[in-house]
Amino acid sequence: MYNRNLKNLLMKWEYHVVHLNVDDSPKEDVEASNPEAASEKLKGSLSPDFLKDQFPEQFQKDDSSEHPAIQLSKFLNKKGLEQWEFSQTIRIGSMLFLIMKRQVD
Hints:
By secondary structure, the protein is an alpha+beta fold. The protein has one domain (12-104). The chain is 43% helix and 26% strand. It contains six helices and three strands, in the order αβαααααββ. The protein has helices spanning 2-9, 28-32, 35-41, 48-54, 56-59, 68-81; strands at residues 12-20, 85-92, 95-104. The chain has a three-stranded antiparallel beta sheet, with helices on one face. A hairpin with a 2-residue loop joins strand 2 and strand 3 (95-104). Helix 3 packs across helix 4. The two termini are 21 Å apart. The relative contact order is 0.21.
């Protein structure tokens, strides 16, 4: 029992901190991906159709993105395979951090 407690005291850890953006307020990025809104910002000098035609990467719909819960699950599973253990979350203001740790030999 004594040796086991001593071993726990001598364990070394490294930490990995992940910041999650949980701010759900509207962002300019969302508006910028809307050609109608972009055209209005330009006071109609460029039509929404022209913007979609000339900047297809900016105004394409991304229906392939997964739900954030699935993305997070995949991320945590990948980190688990790398021996990272989810330890805790910390909220600082509007920021949310995931703290992960793994033992260092």
